[in-house]
Structures are given as C-alpha cells and as structure tokens.
Amino acid sequence: MLLLLATVAHADPAYEAPPCGPASWVGPADGTVDVPIDARMLVRADGGCPVSLVRLTPAVGAPVELEPQALESGLFAVVPPALLDPSTTYDAAILDDAGGALQQVRFHTGEDLAPLLEAPQVDVVALSVSHRGRSGRGQLADANWTLDVDADPSDPLSVLRVYDDDGQRYLSEAAPFAEPEALSVWTVGPSLPEGAEQCLLVAQENAAGIAVDAARVCAAPTDESWGWQDGPIDHVGCAVAPGAGGGLGLLVALGLVRRKRRA
User: Fold this and answer.
1) How far is residue 215's CA from residue 213's CA, in Å, rounded to a whole number?
2) What per-residue string of b and e applies to 41-55 under the rule 16 or more CB within 10 Å gives b?
3) Is there a contact between 21 and 87 (Cβ–Cβ < 8 Å)?
4) What are 129-176's pLDDT values in tens digits?
5) What is the b/e burial string over 233-250, where b = at least 16 CB atoms within 10 angstroms of the residue's CB?
6) pLDDT tens digits, 89-123
7) I need a labelling partner for 211 at 20 to 30 A (CA). Which of 99, 104, 151, 165 fits?
8) What is the pLDDT of residue 83?
C-alpha cells in the first residue's frame, strides 16, 4: 500500500491517457448481410477503452441508443430490446465515454432468426500443467491447453465459450467464429494429483447468444512440472476467481489462433 501511495503521489500531473483507437472488431462486421433479426452485437475495444453507447439507426426510423453489457475486460455485448426489422439496413456507431466514435459499421438484416447450432467437436492436442504453491491457499496449477475445434461454420456471427467442468463460466473469449480454429486455452485452478485427468466444456453460441449444448473434453497432462512459489501467483490481467462455497474458481483465458479448415 505504501508503494502504491508513493506512486500516486509522484504521478506526472501532465500525463494524459492515449486516445482510444478504433474497436479491434465488431460483429456484425461492416458490410455483413442476412444478419439474423435476433442477433446481438459484440464489440472488442483494446487498450481499456470504454464502450459507453451504441447508436443503432435503421434506414427508415429513429435511432436507438443501447447500453453495452461488459462481458469481460474490453469485450461488450449489445442486445437490442426487440427483434431487428427484417430486410433492413442498419448503421451502428460505437461510442466511447467522450462521445467519440470507436467504430462505425453498416449491416443488412435477413428474414430469419439465428439458427441453433450443435456442440462443436473438440480434441485435445496437448495439455501441459505447471504446479506451484500459494501460501494460505494450498497448491495451484497453471494449465495450458491446445484444442482442435471443429465448429458449425453456418453462422458467421457465432462465438465460442469455454467453461470449467462444472459448467460455471469465469472468463471466456468471444470472437466471430466462421470456420474451425485451434484454441489456445490457459486456466488457473486447484492443483490435482500428478497425472490426473482434467476437463473443460466448450460451447458454441449462435448470433443471439444461445448455446444448445457443450462438448466435454478431458485429458491427462502430456507435460507436467512441480514447483513452489511462496505468496500470490501474479499473472498480468488475470486473477483467481472465488468459486461457489468459498472454493477456488477456475479462470479461463483464451487466445484464438487461425488455422486451416480441416479436410
């Protein structure tokens, strides 16, 4: 705490945060057609830039201002209060706290609701686990998964969600998912006995955010190491979330790595 106070006391009063750049991606993307009339919008804003408002303007009619829902740091969902008008062109402006436009996109709706998708097929390519201690909390472990995912490509606005084995979401990366990808998944949770099998649930949500089912995938570590670190384990941007009943939750961080479609 003393170090923190000292840092604040000596902060440069002339410092100003860098201006927000464009949102790194928006779904529906600019130029998308046949957007389901029940689709939500997803906005990724990098650098901690807040998304305060989305102004949705149909070709005919008054604009509607929508408040984004923060799903995680830098990721926002925008759910219209009613179905979008069919066969209509919409302009969407994503605004920051100052009213500046992070991104502007135009898309055209179709006639139908978003199709329901089956659970993806998931295989574990590799799983490495590094066990280490944390004083007062027992043993923790970092797990690094490489998953081969074959998901339904029929809905270009669908997203993937990763859960722990109990089906409780802690942190999930959402991204437009138009073709099979390889998922790189990092988790932090209680350390298990050496060689013990670990499991994840992977679900594919459609454009409306509905997941019918999830694929359960399990594996024993292909590479495992043991160590001890006194004090908290510090990873930039990550923390261990408390689970139900006071136990340790599972934190999942995802990175999407583009790969070729499987034959």
Assistant:
1) 7
2) bbbbbeeebbbbbbe
3) no
4) 998 865 455 688 889 988 888 888 888 888 888 888 877 655 455 555
5) beeeebebeebeeeebbb
6) 999 998 877 777 788 999 999 999 999 999 989 99
7) 104
8) 95
Residue with tokens 């004083």: 135
Determine contact, residues 199/214, Cβ cutoff 8 Å: no
Query: CA Rg, the chain, in Å?
Result: 21
Number of C-beta neighbours around residue 16 at 10 A: 6
Report how far residue 61's alpha carbon sits from residue 58's, in angstroms, rounded to the nearest whole number: 6
What type of residue sits at position 108?
H
Angle at 34 between CA 33 and CA 39, to 5 degrees: 105
Question: Which of 177, 203, 175, 180 lies closest to 42, judged by CA?
Answer: 175
